[in-house]
Amino acid sequence: MSGKAPLSFLLLFALAACTSRQPGRDAGNGSGGDGASMSMVDANIPDGGPHDGAGGCYAPIDLVFVLDVSTSMTDEFTHLRDGIASIVAAADALTPDHAFSIVVFVDDVLAVVGCGQFETAADLQAEFDHWRTFCSSNGEPGGSGGQNGDCPENSLDALYTAATMCTWRDGATHVVIHVTDDTFLEAPAHFSGGFGSGPAAEHTYAQTSAALVAAQIHVGAFAQLTPADCGAGTSANTAQGFLAPYHGMPSLPDATSGRAWDIAQVRNGSLDMATAINELIAASHCAPF
Description:
This protein is an alpha/beta fold.
């Protein structure tokens, strides 16, 4: 008998080897660890689409953290920083192609590195460490100068910035994780400063909600259900817009098929931030908006 396999057998063997490969993963390519790449091209997704042709969905995930960096947020940054490896691993279990970015705010707003992507979990953790330290400064991250002198923070402009400045890829699942323990102001009101001379809010709630919906972004919001002392007094209605409607309009999580959590549960240890975020990512991935 000849020692050479028939040509038809070799072709079938090669085809099986190609189609059995898990989409987007090469041998030795790590995932989910601190040094793992957080955006990998999935060469086996036909025409760059979200499905593998066999019923599986490998749509990319674009996720932006929109984070309050005022003085009361240090503990939340610690929880998030410690959960980053878990969050990256959860995203990687769904798709090898995911991108993470950061927008920070107090009274003004900064899209960190122009809302660019952090290439590794370690880079993302280091950025969280930086902003955790910044929280103690009582400063303004966006360059407006001065000090944060009131309770409301600029969630609306930060979310609008994320919706309109960050890269949201066609066919990807879009997620924002918003974290704050206070309320917000709408345009044209001014934050902090003597007699309202601090930075002005640039957008209304309705404009921000519309921008998030237009970009098909699922909003996961950690917010304060029951108002608490912010160091400059106590805000009323901290739940509005996040855990409750705002002036008759749906909360941002409700308007975007997202989720909301009471940040007090994070602080008392009954809610793990990474677990909550991972559940939202899994529920949103490839789901109709």
